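Retry 2 of 3 after timeout on previous attempt. Resubmitting structure tokens to design endpoint.
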């Protein structure tokens, strides 16, 4: 993946994560609230940007993390798609489908959401390990993934903390910040050839 392509996908992932974070910051708890259409639409745009952005994140390190990296990415993308897309689509186009949340959670889409919740931590752990072992991105990219896992676990277990943090808004912010790691890698790739050319010119002059 070229530096320019990395930058483009970095912007996509960052934008997707920010859209999701803002959407869940203001997402209403009651589907009767008129704000649900806008927040769900913003979240839908975010998830449709973030999922291919995560694939691009893995593509950037695939040379050094082929099996574990793609496994972690595949699990994470599948989990997020199951967790987010159905209710964001319904919230955008048919909010009345979410009026009875008990019925929604008992149905097919609700069961998919539960499966996504169970699968997501596994995918993030595998992806974090792959990112650590590959050494392609800055180390803080790994800690973003670790923080995502920790924040999700605390928010899921301690409900008042999750409510205070507007869970899962912080998780998507952390995910979006992985785009900065991609941009950092692109910058390093641009700097390295320039440094090599300077060294070659200096050697030639001597």
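Retry 2 succeeded. Sequence:
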């Amino acid at each position: 993946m070229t530096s320019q392509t990395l930058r483009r996908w970095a912007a996509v992932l960052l934008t997707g994560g920010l859209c999701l974070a803002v959407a869940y910051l203001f997402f209403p708890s009651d589907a009767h609230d008129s704000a649900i259409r806008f927040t769900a639409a913003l979240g839908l745009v975010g998830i449709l940007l973030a999922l291919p952005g995560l694939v691009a994140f893995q593509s950037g390190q695939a040379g050094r993390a082929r099996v574990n990296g793609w496994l972690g990415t595949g699990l994470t993308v599948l989990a997020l798609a199951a967790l987010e897309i159905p209710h964001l689509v319904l919230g955008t186009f048919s909010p009345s489908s979410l009026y009875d949340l008990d019925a929604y959670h008992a149905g097919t889409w609700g069961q998919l959401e539960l499966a996504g919740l169970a699968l997501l931590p596994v995918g993030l752990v595998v992806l974090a390990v792959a990112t650590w072992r590959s050494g392609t991105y800055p180390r803080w990219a790994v800690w973003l993934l670790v923080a995502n896992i920790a924040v999700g676990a605390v928010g899921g277990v301690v409900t008042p903390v999750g409510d205070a943090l507007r869970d899962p808004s912080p998780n998507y912010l952390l995910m979006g910040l992985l785009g900065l790691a991609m941009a950092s890698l692109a910058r390093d790739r641009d700097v390295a050839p320039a440094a090599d050319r300077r060294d070659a010119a200096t050697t030639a002059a001597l």
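Attempt log closed. Residues 178-205 form the longest helix (28 residues).
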